[in-house]
Design goal:
heterotrimer; A mainly alpha (224); B alpha+beta (270); C alpha+beta (452); A: 224 residues; mainly alpha; 10 helices; B: 270 residues; alpha+beta; Immunoglobulin-like; C8orf32 fold; 2 domains; 7-stranded antiparallel beta sheet; 6-stranded antiparallel beta sheet; 5 helices
Chain lengths: 224, 270, 452
């Protein structure tokens, strides 16, 4: 064991990012959906703004249908899930058929969810499978660098999303500490100065969310 | 027997920088029954990692790569060939060289060559050598040497239809005609005394002998020729093949010098 | 001859299998593990599940012992042939095979002439397609010596069906087929010249990508694409993400010869590895299967395989070909023209069930056109008697339906020839069709070899 191509390290990282993106956006969607039911029909407008995605939706029904389930909407949850799948399908050897099967199941669950009338129940099967996938990767993958590459992707994405959603600084600090502990174990190349800067930013009382988003996105990637 | 001093220089100039360049070169003559190569130096530039191998036809292949950015690529091969050691190359038995009886994409005849072939009426001749001589005689009358009409990709039929071309085209047409007659024959790339460019000709199999015919100059191949490579057609003998990263146009310069030398070394080399 | 009816009780046949099939457990499991193949429809890539039918093909112990002997003999002879053809060519000299069947076909690669691959093995993994006739006789229909695929499907189907209906296996004495990966690993290790073993894939949009990735996982080989491998200083290396170069000693390549190396074969190939062929010539890497095997699995050469067995091994062939005629020979041409309606005609250049026509299904005009074509290009076609296939039942909507099926047996050449005690049974879903290829909508079954 122990030889991985550059391309596959990249895919492991993005697999972590996209699974996290799907998981967290479903969670956020759930909370917004709740108020759309009978409080504020236009809640989705604020949601789009917070996610920095164009509001192309005509109504709350349209929003639910397209943002969750339309492959033509590049910001939709299903589009992100398919990106996770596209990365996973070429990583069978690294992550194993057992872990991979949960991504596969998440895709089926997503397709099932699009057919039902209560999206939240369907989407819960998606997050169940993603959670199971993460559990499997931790449990089943022998190579610690592979586990950690996925983890790093997941934490980077989480900090990115939390920062866009402007969640409480303490939660972001916690995720940043986890990332700091992980990133060297992943043996991936990353920008050490930026990591230090991120650590500094999250300690500020008045957390500069936008700067943090910029910095965290550039932590790992091509520009190195 | 002659002693020929040769120099083969090739330079590719790219319109912009390229990188990740992988190349295979068939530019180095090898020893045969007819020729012996001595004092050879090979330089490939820019500096790069090069390996050597011999392909399925016995041709020397240099292969390697240059990863750095560069805007030109080339080689210089210099040496001395003692030629005319024998009249012909000994050939394998027929069943082993059967592949040379069959047409390739380049030599496959079309209507024009077919028509020409029928007029040749080769049944009059017995041996492969006599047939090949008749083919060469008629071909040099029917086809004209003109540069710039055809290119590397031109097939025998296309060249023949156009009526003129260069040595590669003469060779392909002759191969096409010989193969219609079921004569095993092969394409030869090489150099010739007094030429400024590389040259190509044909060898035909006749009773365990490979006999060289130069349809371009309408003569038999003798000791003023140096063989570099041989194969089914020109695609087996490409002097330079490469792939690289970069969207560029390229210009190729070739300069071949072959001259006879007379000096006191003569006796020592043999 | 054992059929499933002999070893399953009626209750098992009808009720249990129905429950098992009807529950959707199998399909759910196959979907879960992504058992798919890719196809292009209207230029768009689609992944399709490979329909699995749970009623297995069953082969008796004795019957399999016979097949095993015959398959080993056949693949050993085919390897002798390929070695000879790229070497001394005695079989041509001795007139056993007319030279044009070698040189005028597209299977013979002159670039391979003179090559002695590691351990002298050209066909490491052979997929031999067989059919069983109503009278129980087996016939070889085709030898696949390039990149035969399909072993992964019965491997995973077995795992799944043992899980979802364990009772069906209890007391049945079925040979375990989940050892394919281990056999494959031994085969690859046997020829490895030093270094890692990789499985070279054209990428995820290849029809058999599932198999490439599954076999990589199960054998512990590294799955790689062409651009992850590089030739340097006469050796092949895998470039690790840290920039480390790891020597590779064996490549189980799942891309075809023509795309393998743009410097030797198709220049426009972007999935190959430049100069891999040069270092393979030098013996510095093993290619599995070796390039050039097409010379031996051409439909025209098929006719000569029994003759090869006699010629190289001085043995009587154990397995028989389907009765085949070569219009190239005058007496065969005469027979084909006279018996056109009862024959199936195959274009030697086509594969995957394409280029196959049945004499009796043509209109009289089509027949005349075909006969003209046959006379003009006699070497392009072979004609075969239509074999009366033994049908195998499949389960469709609570009903047992008889369907045509073939068997792809896998023969691996390690230190010793090995025959996998299973195989891929493909069936045609269309009751009138004889064509079982997955690319044409067929399904598959597990193949049970009994151990007693």
């Amino acid at each position: 064991m122990g030889i991985i191509s550059v391309e596959n390290t990249d895919r492991l990282y993005w697999l972590g990012r996209y699974t996290e993106r799907v998981y967290t956006t479903i969670k956020v969607f759930e909370s917004r959906f709740d108020s759309m039911i009978d409080i504020d029909d236009l809640e989705y407008e604020k949601f789009c703004e917070s996610q920095d995605i164009p509001n192309i939706y005509k109504s709350k029904e349209d929003f639910v249908a397209r943002y969750c389930f339309s492959l033509e909407d590049e910001n939709s949850i299903i589009s992100n899930l398919m990106r996770a799948y596209d990365n996973a399908i070429v990583l069978r050897e690294e992550i194993g058929s057992e872990s991979l099967s949960y991504i596969q199941l998440a895709v089926y669950a997503m397709n099932q969810a699009s057919l039902g009338r209560s999206p939240l129940i369907g989407l819960q099967h998606v997050t169940d499978n993603i959670a199971a996938f993460w559990g499997m990767t931790d449990d089943d993958i022998e190579e610690s660098s592979i586990r950690n590459m996925i983890r790093v992707g997941k934490l980077v994405e989480r900090i990115d999303l939390y920062s866009r959603l402007k969640v409480f600084p303490e939660r972001i600090r916690k995720e940043t500490r986890r990332l700091t502990n992980r990133i060297d174990k992943s043996t991936m190349r990353y920008d050490h100065k930026r990591m230090a800067h991120v650590n500094y930013l999250v300690q500020l009382d008045d957390l500069p969310y936008e700067t943090l988003t910029d910095e965290i996105e550039k932590l790992v990637g091509d520009e190195l | 027997m002659k002693k020929l001093q040769f120099g083969y220089h090739m330079k590719l100039t790219f319109s912009d920088y390229v990188s990740n360049h992988r190349f295979s070169l068939k530019c180095v003559p090898h020893d045969t029954d007819l020729q012996k190569i001595v004092n050879m130096t090979v330089e490939v530039y820019p500096d790069n990692v090069t390996s050597e191998d011999s392909d399925a036809y016995g041709n020397i292949t240099l292969f390697g790569y240059t990863n750095e950015l560069h805007d030109c690529f080339g080689f210089d091969v210099k040496g001395i060939a003692v030629t005319g050691k024998e009249e012909y190359e000994k050939a394998d038995e027929l069943h082993k060289i059967g592949i040379f009886k069959y047409q390739t994409q380049k030599t496959k005849p079309g209507l024009r060559i077919l028509e020409f072939y029928q007029k040749l009426d080769l049944k009059r001749f017995g041996s492969a050598t006599d047939k090949a001589t008749a083919i060469m005689d008629s071909l040099s009358e029917a086809f004209q040497y003109v540069q710039g009409i055809t290119d590397m990709e031109t097939t025998a039929e296309e060249a023949f239809t156009g009526g003129s071309g260069v040595c590669q085209d003469y060779a392909h047409i002759m191969l096409s005609l010989c193969r219609m007659e079921r004569i095993p024959c092969r394409y030869v790339a090489g150099m010739m005394m007094g030429e400024g460019l590389s040259h190509a000709w044909v060898e035909i199999w006749d009773e365990h002998k490979w006999r060289g015919f130069d349809p371009t100059n309408h003569k038999l191949v003798g000791d003023e020729y140096i063989k570099i490579s041989n194969g089914r057609d020109s695609t087996d003998c490409l002097v330079n093949q490469g792939i690289f990263t970069g969207n560029v146009s390229q210009m190729q310069e070739i300069n071949v010098v072959v001259e006879e030398v007379f000096d006191e070394w003569n006796n020592r080399i043999n | 001859m054992t059929t499933y009816a002999d070893i399953f009780s009626k209750k098992e046949r009808v009720e249990d299998m129905e429950i098992y099939a009807g529950s959707g457990a199998v399909n759910e499991q196959l979907a879960r593990y992504g058992v798919k193949f890719g196809i292009y429809k209207n230029n768009e890539f689609k992944e399709q599940l490979f329909p699995f039918d749970m009623i297995p093909r069953i082969i008796d112990k004795d019957e399999f012992t016979y097949l095993e002997k015959g398959l080993k003999q056949r693949v050993v002879a085919l390897n002798c042939f390929i070695n000879d053809i790229y070497g001394d060519k005695h079989i041509v000299r001795d007139g056993i095979i007319p030279e044009e069947f070698i040189y005028a076909g597209s299977g013979y690669l002159p670039q391979c002439d003179g090559i002695k691959p590691p351990k002298g093995i050209y066909a490491h993994i052979a997929g031999i397609d067989l059919v069983q006739a109503k009278d129980g006789d087996w016939y070889v229909l085709e030898d696949n010596l390039r990149i035969p695929s399909g072993a992964s499907y019965p491997m995973i189907a077995r795992m799944i069906s043992r899980r979802s209906s364990p009772d069906l296996f209890t007391g049945k004495h079925v040979e375990d087929n989940r050892n394919y990966a281990a056999m494959l690993r031994r085969t690859m290790d046997h020829v490895n010249v030093g270094g890692h073993t990789v499985i070279l894939t054209p990428g995820r949009y290849n029809a058999a990508y599932f198999e490439h990735s599954y076999l990589a996982e199960k054998t512990g080989a590294h799955l790689a694409s062409g651009h992850e491998l590089i030739v340097e200083n006469d050796h092949l290396y895998f470039i690790d993400y840290s920039g480390r170069k790891e020597r590779v000693g064996a490549v189980y390549r799942r891309i075809s010869d023509e795309y393998l190396d743009p410097m030797t074969f198709r220049k426009d190939s972007v999935i190959g590895i430049p100069h891999i062929f040069d270092i393979y010539r030098k013996g510095n890497v093993a290619l599995i299967n070796a390039p050039g095997n097409g010379v031996a699995d051409d439909k025209g050469i098929y006719y000569f395989v029994p003759k090869m067995v006699k010629y190289y091994l001085e043995e009587e062939p154990i397995l028989q070909n389907a009765p085949t005629y070569l219009p190239y020979y005058k007496e065969d041409m005469k027979y084909v023209l006279e018996n056109f309606d009862k024959l199936v005609l195959k274009d030697v250049a086509e594969a995957g069930g394409y280029g196959v026509v049945f004499g009796n299904k043509m209109t009289s005009e089509e027949k005349e056109n075909f006969k003209t074509m046959l006379k003009n290009e006699p070497r392009r076609f072979i004609a075969q008697e239509v074999i009366d296939f033994l049908d195998i039942d499949i389960m469709e909507k609570h009903e047992l339906l008889p369907r045509k099926a073939d068997l792809r047996a896998f023969v691996l050449m390690g230190e010793e020839p090995m025959v996998w005690k299973s195989g891929l049974t493909r069936f045609s879903r269309n009751p009138d069709s004889f064509i079982v290829n997955s690319s044409q909508g067929g399904g598959f079954k597990d193949t049970w070899v009994l151990s007693q």
